[in-house]
Specification:
mainly alpha; Arc Repressor Mutant, subunit A; two-stranded antiparallel ribbon; about 50% helix
Length: about 140
């Protein structure tokens, strides 16, 4: 394993999951395209997994590998599956009607990137699962 690959694996192990953009920033690379030599072989081996596309691709250490090493770490919502995040948001808004994104973010977990939460809220509004009232900072969400 090359030094680059070891460094990338170390960063992923420390942060549980990183987007391509976050990993490139942590490695001080000029662009996301520069990640290829750092992750090509670990992705081919069963060490690193990825979800998503382009700059939003999330990289993480294979959960089976972590389990087999008996590595203890705290539970996090960083890699929560999209459908589970949507269900969590709907449940939260059901309990706390007319709530803001910052309040939802605080309650369900600040380790989830706010941009991901915002995209999920926009999707739920488009689907008609949630209603949006107000604009910009005054935006509040409720069930229909």
């Amino acid at each position: 394993m090359t030094q680059r690959e070891r460094i990338a694996l170390g960063l992923l192990a420390q942060h549980d999951a990183l987007t391509a953009r976050e990993l490139a920033k942590a490695l001080e690379l000029p662009s996301v395209d520069s990640l290829h030599p750092w992750l090509q072989r670990p992705l081919e081996w069963p060490l690193v997994r990825s979800t998503g596309r382009t700059q939003a691709t999330r990289y993480f250490i294979d959960p089976q590998l972590v389990r087999s090493l008996d590595f203890s770490s705290s539970t996090t919502l960083k890699r929560i599956e999209p459908h589970r995040l949507l269900a969590l948001i709907v449940e939260d808004v059901g309990r706390y009607p007319l709530t803001r994104i910052s309040e939802i973010h605080q309650r369900i977990g600040t380790e989830i990137p706010r941009s991901r939460l915002r995209r999920s809220l926009e999707q739920l509004v488009r689907e008609g699962t949630l209603h949006q009232e107000g604009a910009r900072r005054g935006t509040r969400y409720r069930l229909p």
